[in-house]
Amino acid sequence: MDMWLPFLSEFGFPVVVTLYLLHRIESKLDTVNHSILKLPENIHQLLYVRSIEHKKNG
Prior knowledge:
- There is one protein chain.
- Helices cover 93% and strands 0% of the residues.
- It is mostly helical.
- The relative contact order is 0.06.
- The mean pLDDT is 86.
């Protein structure tokens, strides 16, 4: 246990800050991940709507 104390005192603050920032950004990363997963579906819908508009105009 004595050998861990210097590591904790030396690296404790950066670890705590990193964990705090990761906790704060987690929901934003979930939103980005969800958006990326829905991207193919959204592109497909966009192409479908454009093809319908093209048929109406052409």
